[in-house]
Design brief:
A hairpin with a 2-residue loop joins strand 8 and strand 9. The chain has 211 residues and is α+β, with helices and mostly antiparallel strands. It is elongated. 25% of the residues lie in helices and 26% in strands. It has a seven-stranded antiparallel beta sheet with strand order 5-6-11-7-8-9-10, with no helix packed on it. The chain has three domains: 63 residues, Arc Repressor Mutant, subunit A; 33 residues, no CATH class; 101 residues, Umud Fragment, subunit A (Ribbon), CATH 2.10.109.
């Protein structure tokens, strides 16, 4: 990517930290305060440069939709298979490429960090990053789909979506938790799950917490 100026890098670093912590974009006024600026014009200029250089993007005409754009680097070579039980023959030739760019370069996709263990039976643990796709037509979401849903009076949650008439049930994947049952007009489906990213350190911490 094209390098950033110091001012652009400062704003970008702050945006990454803010969105990672709060799971939504800040307002222009919050960015002004964070950058110690007295006018929105410099913030808007920096945002435009960050967008032009491919570091961020947003949805035109909608407030607080800034998202961090993650770029791929051509893919990771897949060299073969590895046994988790017995042994297999060693390998040296590249067989294919694991290309994640299609997942991370979609203009509307966004990531959320998982807090809690209500989806562990679907192999989604605390600390994982879930990659979500916005839903242009929430009424067409299929039953059983894992969604990010904003529930009136509850906040936003990651659950399996089920609808029967005007009744929505958001089902966890952990027997310790009860389903959330609400009226359809109390639920806003904000995205559907398309991928899960888990770092090794996060996985180890998650296993340790469950012991």
């Amino acid at each position: 990517m094209e390098p950033l100026t110091d001012a652009q890098q400062q704003l970008y670093n702050w945006l990454v930290e803010y969105i990672g912590q709060y799971q939504h974009a800040p307002s222009i006024r919050q960015m002004m305060w964070a950058m110690e600026l007295k006018s929105p014009a410099p913030v808007q200029s920096r945002l435009e440069h960050l967008r032009a250089k491919g570091y961020i993007d947003w949805t035109e005409g909608k407030a607080r939709t800034i998202r961090i754009v993650r770029s791929g680097a051509g893919g990771v070579p897949v060299l073969g298979a590895i046994a988790a039980g017995g042994l297999v023959e060693p390998f040296t030739d590249t067989l294919e490429q694991l290309d994640l760019s299609s997942l991370f370069r979609q203009p509307d996709y966004y990531a959320l960090r998982v807090v809690g263990d209500s989806m562990i039976e679907d192999q989604i643990a605390e600390g994982d990053m879930v990659i979500m796709r916005p839903v242009p037509e929430p009424d067409r979401v299929k039953n059983g789909t894992i969604v990010a849903a904003r529930v009136e009076g509850h906040g936003t949650t990651l659950k399996r979506y089920h609808r029967q008439g005007e009744q929505i049930t958001l089902k966890p994947a952990n027997a310790k938790y009860d389903p959330i049952k609400v009226k359809a007009n109390q639920v806003e489906v904000q995205g559907v799950l398309v991928g899960v990213w888990r770092g090794y350190d996060a996985a180890i911490k998650s296993v340790s917490r469950r012991r």
